[in-house]
Write a structure and sequence with these properties.
Layout: E1 3-7, H1 14-29, E2 34-38, H2 43-52, E3 68-71, E4 74-78, H3 79-87, H4 91-95, H5 107-195, H6 201-232
Parallel strand pairs: 1-2
Antiparallel strand pairs: 1-3, 3-4
C-alpha cells in the first residue's frame, strides 16, 4: 500500500504550508513511506484529488484544500482528521496501515510529539489568531457602521436645528420689517405736523396793517357816502 499526500508546492497560504509540513514531517518521523503529489504543477493530480475527495468532506464551495491524504485509491482524510488521529495515537488506523511488529500504536506518535506536535500547535494557534482577526474586523466594521449612523443622526438633528434657526430669523426679519415700515410712516407724518408753524411777528404786523388799511378805506367810503347824502338833502 502506498500513502499518497496531495500537496500544493506553491501555495500562498502560510497556514496550508504549515499543515503540509506537519503531515509530511510526522510521516517521515514514523518512517512511513508516502508519495507527495503536487497539485500546483500537475493538473491531473489536482483534478484527481478534487474528484476523489468525498462530497461530505468538501467545503461549501466544493473545492477541497491540501493536504489531502489517500491510501492508494481510498480516501483517508484531510489535515483536521489527520490531526485528530495523531492526538488519539491512531495514525496507523487513520492511514489504513498495520502498526509495525513489536511496536505500540502510541509509541511513534510520542517520539514525534516534541517537534511535530509543536508545529501542529503553532498551526492551530495561527488559525485561531486568523479567526480572531476576522471576528475583530467584523466587529470593527459593525462599530464603524454604528458610528456612521450616529453621525448621520447628529447631522440630521443639526440640519433640523439649523432650519428652525432660519425660520426664527425670518420671523424676526418680518417683525423688524413691519416695525421699520411703521417708523417710516411716522417719519412721513412728522413733516406734515412741522408744516403748521406759528406766524412770526413781522407777518402778524403785516396782516394787522393790511386789516387797518382796509378798515380805513371802508371808513372813508362811508364818510363820502354820508357827505353825498347831506348834499342831496
Amino acid at each position: 500500500m502506498v500513502i499518497k499526500v496531495y500537496l500544493a508546492s506553491s501555495s500562498g497560504s502560510t497556514a496550508i504550508k504549515k499543515k503540509q509540513q506537519d503531515v509530511v514531517g510526522f510521516l517521515e518521523a514514523l518512517k512511513i513511506d508516502y508519495t507527495p503529489l503536487d497539485i500546483a504543477c500537475n493538473e491531473e493530480n489536482r483534478l484527481w484529488m478534487r474528484e476523489n475527495v468525498p462530497g461530505e468532506k468538501k467545503p461549501t464551495n466544493g473545492i477541497p484544500l491540501p493536504p489531502q491524504i489517500f491510501n492508494e485509491e481510498s480516501y483517508c482524510g484531510d489535515y483536521e482528521t489527520f490531526f485528530d488521529a495523531k492526538e488519539d495515537n491512531q495514525v496507523y488506523a487513520f492511514l489504513g496501515l498495520a502498526p509495525p511488529p513489536g511496536s505500540k500504536q502510541g509509541d511513534p506518535a510520542e517520539e514525534c510529539n516534541g517537534v511535530v506536535n509543536g508545529e501542529s500547535e503553532e498551526v492551530v494557534e495561527e488559525e485561531q489568531e486568523e479567526l480572531a482577526g476576522e471576528q475583530a474586523a467584523e466587529e470593527g466594521g459593525e462599530e464603524e457602521e454604528e458610528v456612521v449612523e450616529e453621525e448621520q443622526e447628529e447631522l440630521a438633528v443639526g440640519d433640523a436645528e439649523l432650519a428652525e434657526d432660519e425660520e426664527a430669523e425670518e420671523e424676526i426679519k418680518k417683525v423688524t420689517g413691519e416695525e421699520d415700515d411703521q417708523g417710516e410712516e411716522e417719519e412721513d407724518e412728522e413733516p406734515k405736523e412741522e408744516d403748521v408753524q406759528p406766524v412770526s411777528e413781522e407777518e402778524e404786523d403785516l396782516v394787522i396793517s393790511e386789516e387797518e388799511e382796509e378798515l380805513r378805506k371802508l371808513e372813508e367810503e362811508e364818510e363820502e357816502a354820508d357827505a353825498e347824502d347831506e348834499e342831496d338833502e
